[in-house]
Amino acid sequence: MQDDKIIITLSGQDKIGIVAKLTTALAEYKVNIEDIKQTIMQGYFVMFLLGSIADSEYSFKEIKEGLLKVGEELSMEIWVQKKEIFDNMHNI
Amino acid sequence: MKFINSESILETINMIKVQHLDIRTVTLALSLRDCCDSDVKAAGKKIYDKILKYASRLVDCANEIEEAYSIPIINKRIAVTPISLVGESCDRYDYVYLAKILDKAAEAVGVNFIGGYGALVEKGCTKGDTALIESIPEALSQTKYICSSVNLASSKAGINMDAVYKMGQIVKKTAELTADADGIGAAKLVCFCNAPGDNPFMAGAFHGIGEPECALNVGISGPGVVSAAIESLPSGASFDDLANKIKQTAYKITTTGELIGREMAEKLDIPFGVIDLSLAPTPAEGDSVAGIFQAMGLEHTGAHGTTAALAMLNDAVKKGGIMASSHVGGLSGAFIPVSEDAGMIEAVSKGYLSFDKLEAMTSVCSVGLDMIAIPGDTPVDTISGIIADEMAIGMINKKTTAVRVIPVPGKKVGDRAVYGGLLGEAPVMNVNHLSSAGFIRRGGRIPAPVHSLNN
Q1: Of the residues B210, B213, B376, B390, which has the maximum number of CB atoms within 10 A of its CB?
Q2: Tens digit of pLDDT for each residue in B318-334?
Q3: What is the pTM of this model?
Q4: Do A91 and B1 touch (CB under 8 A)?
């Protein structure tokens, strides 16, 4: 289901354990990771993650709240959005 | 996008976070034609119950979708059938009572505004229309959420000059009754020519007579996104490139509105209406239509060339947006309100932008003279003259035009009227001091124009 895909964008100061902490949380929320990309932009670590929440018993809202907390703990900015917004905007 | 396209993701996030891309309004348009009753109290009850039935989930739904896509949905609103029609069957006209009912319903469902307290009188007024128009000052001064609009002219019918004269008085009286808040009542009152019945933007939203039972209309925004896109072009890029860039950007902005609109409509189980692909500025830094003119290369809004820049912008926005949506409607184009746009406020404050230049710009913008503060002692005939001019531009050019001027009680040219929030603040502008009275008070109608021999 298209509706079940989410895009997570994490950015901020690079440090040890970012990926570990985020993916641990995703495993707890039963979010399946389908693709990951990471890069350094203007000195900042930026990570993109495509996940599926189809098998999760948590709602999108609960997952988003949990991940925002992870972002806070890492002192990083985190965006959690349903994927359609990108599909619609960047494809004709 | 099957896999991650990091550039697209960053572009979208940047649009929302830095360039103020937002959904300006989700507006539930609702017919109240079945709420007529000979007893005004019974009509009021039907109105209240119907609004609560259809709109009670509107705000929660909008909040859920805002959360899902992390895109702000700024306003949640309701537009209803012009109330003159709904209240006309009552044995005793009491439109202010109906206004209070609408206000109570708006508060109960938690929307920002409810529009449609108005009448369509381009060719003449019925008894109900006259009673409603007379009640506007009282209704707007005694309610919080009501917006009012009156259609005074059309390209088919001409201009109802009796109503134009009347509305000059109504605008002034409305401002006076809300003098303690710089005449804010007049900021919620619009005079239209060729008013569209599916416009989601206030203060002019109403549910047109040919519209379905209900629909969800979405107004999008994003002047900051357009400014940033233009700035990303090499300096000196040609108009061809400029127009293409604006179209591409409008396309992207509109897709988001379409997505949100369709999803909201589905959740509310009502039909999706239209996208109004407007560039609606806010007083926030970087969210300005005036900023787009500067990005295009004008020193500031008001410079010669501003009308051309606006014409191109308005047209390119429509061309780009149309392809991204199945149904485009409303006002669609670029708004040029003064008080709601930091760049316009600056241009007026510095004396770059005159009332007359604004009027010229309205011949190519999406609506008209919008949120302009004028001196409180401006004669009624002059206000009616302003309205008449604007109606004429719309009538002849077959476009929607509108007037939302605020004669700020007790304030003079150079003073400031402060409304706060999205309504912003406006420097009081000078208007022509010559009398319009002999012309305005003739009475009757300006006949509909010939639609050939165009020149």
Answers
A1: B390
A2: 999 999 998 999 998 89
A3: 0.94
A4: yes
